[in-house]
Amino acid sequence: xxxxxxxxxxxxxxxxxxxxxxxxxxxxxxxxxxxxxxxxxxxxxxxxxxxxxxxxxxxxxxxxxxxxxxxxxxxxxxxxxxxxxxxxxxxxxxxxxxxxxxxxxxxxxxxxxxxxxxxxxxxxxxxxxxxxxxxxxxxxxxxxxxxxxxxxxxxxxxxxxxxxxxxxxxxx
Length: 172
Prior knowledge:
The protein is of the alpha+beta class and 172 residues long. It has helices at residues 2-16, 24-37, 40-44, 109-171; strands spanning 66-75, 78-86, 91-101, 104-107. The protein is rod-shaped and about 100 Å long.
């Protein structure tokens, strides 16, 4: 009897999520592992109901080569997990967002997609700003070089004129 009661209590605790290893970090890990494997159906099981964002089927987008997860931050029924994903073309750092749903943690795909887009936009804007800065610097540098050369030529002409003037004055 004691053996059955212990199993019943353990099963109830596991069903309630107590003592299970399905915290937000674990769910994020399972979600990204399934995504990396291209198992979209399995990955969808870790996504909160009502997500408007859609998951791409393998082959429709850049394939996930690797991922890494960092610190987990809990804030009530919301959690974030520092995430870095890499494809052949790029690496992106953002937060995977999870919410409590029916006593467990699920990936908030809409919020996670928003975080990815913010990171991608920020990265793209940073690259664009750097390239624009370099282009402007090059253009300004070329302009300044042209101005300096023009000034040097002008000063040389003024110097030659003054020298000619002095020669003429000495002859008189």
